[in-house]
Amino acid sequence: MSKKNDQKMIFSTVSSSSGTTLKQLVAKAGMHLEAEQIVLAAIPEGLTEGTRFVACQDGELVLSTDTASKATRLRFRQHEIMEALRENELFRFVWKVRVKVAPARYKARKKAEKVPLSKENARLLAEEAGHTKDKALREVLEKLASHVRD
């Protein structure tokens, strides 16, 4: 058999097993998880966070990462990654690494913290209100100055 067929056989052994579709899917997911752990162990430190194993078909390893700069660093070190992966039976025929960029869909924002007004800033606002000729602005500045917390 050719090298490509050997690799297809290794990754497709799960799909040929008997059982229900759900069992086959669970088995494939388990194999994918194992493969992802092997790949992430081969990736240099600092590049593993945000990087995922997508697939490995016909000797082409596909990775996904969250930033373009990380993708560039992975491409730069692809030979080092392939060398480490080839020590494992599943990835012995890997000859190409393709890196895709898939930014995170949602990033939780911190809730803005309201910083209490210091006594010094309240004093400065009250002082500025005293020098202001505009009545509406003076009232607003005085109201702001009254929000001081002890």
TrEMBL record:
Q: Which Pfam families match?
A: DciA
Q: Which InterPro entries match?
A: DciA-like (IPR007922)
Q: Kindly provide the name given to this protein in its UniProt entry.
A: DUF721 domain-containing protein
Q: Show the taxonomic lineage.
A: Bacteria, Pseudomonadati, Pseudomonadota, Gammaproteobacteria, Pseudomonadales
